[in-house]
Amino acid sequence: MSELSTPSNPRVLSSMPLCRAIGLRCERGGRELFSDLSFTLDRGVMLELRGPNGSGKSTLLRALAGLYPDVDGEIDTCDLAYFGHRGGLSPTLTVAENLAWFSGLAGTTADDVPGLLRRVGVPYPNRPLSELSAGQQRRVGLARLMMTGERKPLWLLDEPLTALDSAGEALVGELIDEHLACGGGVVCATHQDLPVVPGLRIELGH
Amino acid sequence: MRHSSGPACRAWAAHRVRPLNALVAQFLRDWRIALRSRHEMTTPLMFFAVVVMLFPLAISPEPEQLAAIAPGVIWVLALLASLLSLEGLFKRDFSDGSLEQMVLSAEPLFLAVVGKLLAHWCAASLPLVIFAPIAALALSLPLEALSTLLASLLLGTPTVACLGAVGAALTVSLGRGGMLLALIVMPLYIPVLIFGTSATSFAVAGLSVAGPLAWLAVLAGLSLTLAPFAVSAAIRMACEE
Predict the structure, then answer these.
(1) Hey, is A46 helix, strand or coil?
(2) How far is CA B150 from CA B52, B77, B201, in A?
(3) By three-state DSSP, how is residue A54 classified?
(4) B92-112 residue pLDDT tens
(5) Nearest CA in chain A to B14
(6) Among A77, A118, A181, B126, which is most buried by a count of CB atoms within 10 Å?
């Protein structure tokens, strides 16, 4: 069973790790994905998850997010944001409406939405999301991630470079760098090399 | 590792959480989606309107006969029409990942669910209540019973929406849960159906309607307080995969 505790005030925990996993073990479809996996993620550190398709990277990220309970071991995390394969954005709503929904939901501040959208290179707040390309939709997801950054010190990124062009890949690197510099932490599953050098690396599927 | 100390450096200040924000944000989001995908709002209403008009043709245009069955017909059709809007309630959010973001980020989740339920009621049930006087006219329901019919619908449909949402949340991760959803939800609608039709029938007969209306209010109060928690638990389970 995974245990998840989410302290509400990250500042109190400034000296504590953002995420601690002890003795994680997961079996899926009769195959052991990982076992005896332990790590501690401190502030300002990025953990990179590597491994071939089906090696359990996404499963581990979902377990850390509390979205996959069938993992043995102990997981302890602070408030987190999850950037997964599914965007979590409604195609019917405009870009700004999607962001407003999320900021209201998560209690983040959405003061400078136009500035945020310029930063991620999608300066069309009033376009429905369905009119944007896959890469642009991912960029809106990045804008949302930047909004959560204020409240969620731990970012869980599942293949953040999917569908992004080279400028978008550089942007992901910048955002991660800034987040780490502010004392946040990142766990990132990826196949491609990120423009950020990870502090920790776990190879799955070996 | 590179370190940048740009202007974007954030303080991890604990924001004051304003929980009603989650409710309002979720309500606005779902209400806007409902307005833009209009067929989801109009299909149940069209079903309700068209089928009501079939009864005078199929049974008899005699006002006495129609008036006798009118309360039951209107209530049964309202329940069936509400089923039509249920399947899409969580399914779309589930497949585009919004549900998972809601589970992860909403503070607190049950208030966001309350916002969702309110929007669902406004989009799916309120149009039926507004159309009910025309249905009552078509079925020759006596005018003095009209206010009771509307009161029973206003008090009963929140329960219907809440129970339906619990069923929809439980079946959201199943591929084709439509039939199962109807089987789960329909028996739960029975108390609302009984009190709703009896209130209207009592009004037609000139009896006191306070009893059944009070029971409808009790059911509405119970389901409005309990259903958000049940729905929250169910969508949390659905997202755990």
Answers:
(1) strand
(2) 16, 14, 13
(3) coil
(4) 999 999 999 999 988 889 999
(5) A9
(6) A77
Q: Is B100 on the interface with A (CB under 8 A)?
A: yes
Q: Does A88 contact B2 at a Cβ distance shorter than 8 Å?
A: no
Q: Residue B241: which of A198, A156, A80, A58 has the closest Cα?
A: A58
Indicate the range of A134-143, A151-160, B3-12, B46-55 predicted with least confidence. Answer: B3-12
Tens-place pLDDT, residues A125-149: 999 999 999 999 999 999 999 888 6
What one-letter code names the amino acid at B98? S
Nearest to B96 among A87, A107, A108 (CB): A87
Residue A46 has φ and ψ, to the nearest 5°, of: -110, 130
Q: What angle do CA B70, B75, B76 make, to 5 degrees?
A: 100
Inform me whether the C-beta atom of residue B237 falls under 8 Å from chain A C-beta atoms.
no
In angstroms, what CA-CA distances link A77 with A42, A74, A143, A199, B216? Answer: 11, 10, 23, 18, 44
Look at the block and give the residue holding tokens 């619990």: B166
Share of chain A above pLDDT 70, in %: 90
Q: Is the pLDDT of residue B9 over 50?
A: no
Which chain B residues are Cβ-neighbours of A9 within 8 angstroms? 14
Q: Which residues pair with A25 in a beta bridge?
A: A72
Q: What is the mean pLDDT of chain B?
A: 89
